[in-house]
Amino acid sequence: MSTLRNKVVLITGASGGLGAHLAMDVAKKGATPILTARREDQLKVVQEAILKATNIKAPYYILDVSNTDSVEEVFSTILSEHQNIHILVNNAGYGIFEEFVDSPWKNIEGMFSTNVLGLMACTRAVLPHMLQRGSGHIVNIASQAGKISTPKSSVYAATKHAVLGFSNGLRLEVAHKGVDVTTINPGPIATNFFTLADQSGNYVKNVQKLMLQPSHVSDKIVKAMERPVREINLPWWMNVGSTMYQVMPKLIETLGGKSFRQK
């Protein structure tokens, strides 16, 4: 029997892609996923699919994580209606691939508001309850981009660097208080993320064969929920590259050359 049975798992950005896969997978394990995202029509589609497949009704709430007032209001409602959130998955986020010099300020601010401040706001909303209960698990979706920054993703990579830094510090703060913190660092995943991020289509065309399937990433995350780990890095060979980069950055940047410029 899965350790997720009867647990409540709140997932941000659950209206599609990895978030929707993850919601379905935890429901199949007997957990109740709480779906949050900005698009109600898509949330309904995910909710109906989960109900049909598992007979579990996954409640949904409309949430824009970049709006801190909305985060406080929505999480307050969720906690009043469900009492406990056993696992929080900070999945909401987006990227836009463009050179920094060409990036409109609204794009820079938007990515930080969602990917970093939104993630922190959601964590802040549930963490006191987890600490009071003496148990909980926060899963932050970061990226291999948080370990190796490449051209045209300088801002997006900066947000994921921030997620990793925040997660690593928070993990140490709550290490002896019953709360686990896991970061997920995937390479490119075959989702609609690239509809906005890669509007030219060049990046997807160049790396399509190397893309991770969301079902594979979701499976790894579910296993980490059942048995918490510090972080998950996917795929393994990309993690080897990022590890080597920490030791010899100049050499990796030189060898990376053309492959770093596929956007």
Automatic annotation (TrEMBL):
Q: Spell out the molecular function terms from Gene Ontology.
A: oxidoreductase activity, acting on the CH-OH group of donors, NAD or NADP as acceptor
Asked if Oxidoreductase is a keyword of the record, the answer is yes
One GO cellular component, as annotated: membrane
Q: Which UniProt keywords apply?
A: Oxidoreductase
Entries under InterPro entries matching the protein: NAD(P)-bd_dom_sf (IPR036291), Sc_DH/Rdtase_CS (IPR020904), SDR_fam (IPR002347)
Q: Which SUPFAM superfamilies match?
A: NAD(P)-binding Rossmann-fold domains (SSF51735)
Highest taxon in the source lineage: Bacteria
- Read off the Gene3D superfamilies from this record: NAD(P)-binding Rossmann-like Domain
Record flagged with keyword Oxidoreductase? yes
Q: Which family does it belong to?
A: Belongs to the short-chain dehydrogenases/reductases (SDR) family.
Q: Which PANTHER family match?
A: DEHYDROGENASE/REDUCTASE SDR FAMILY MEMBER 7B, DEHYDROGENASE_REDUCTASE SDR FAMILY MEMBER 7B
List the protein's name: Oxidoreductase
Report the source organism: Fictibacillus phosphorivorans
